[in-house]
Write the structure tokens for this entry.
Amino acid sequence: MKKKLFPAIGIVIVTLILLAINEFTEATFIKDYALIFIIAGMFFGLWLAKFSNNAKE
């Protein structure tokens, strides 16, 4: 379960940041590259999971 939790947290965090940027700015690159940013959030979550596993050992 923990292995799936961190990538999900990464996706949620990136999505919330994208929504905030979209609501409060006039930037248009968010619409063009949103999928890439969400995938990057997934990889960020995977990195967090790997980092937390290394910290525990």
About this structure: The two ends are 19 Å apart (CA to CA).
